[in-house]
Amino acid sequence: MDSYQALANAIVELAVKDYKTALKYHFRHPDKQEYTWWSYRFNSRAKNKGWRIDYCMVSESVRPMLKEARILGDVVHSDHCPMLLEITE
Questions:
Q1: CB count, 10 Å around CB of 12?
Q2: Can you tell me the distance from the alpha carbon of 44 to that of 37, in angstroms, rounded to the nearest whole number?
Q3: 23-46 pLDDT, tens per residue?
């Protein structure tokens, strides 16, 4: 893990702790190595050498309604890919 990703992770951890939010994707898939951004250089996306710099966060009151979270890595529109949160009523 490079220093930028470590810094991004630390910032998110502080946000989760300080604002009582839940990082949905990490909550559902803590061990997956999927990314939301890849550099255009060095064929990074094809090599899956990216960073997880896009986050979906919800309040603790919404957390029980969270059904699924996915990174849509096969969707190619830019150097980022979308994320999906499915929330029940």
A1: 17
A2: 9
A3: 556 666 667 778 889 999 999 999
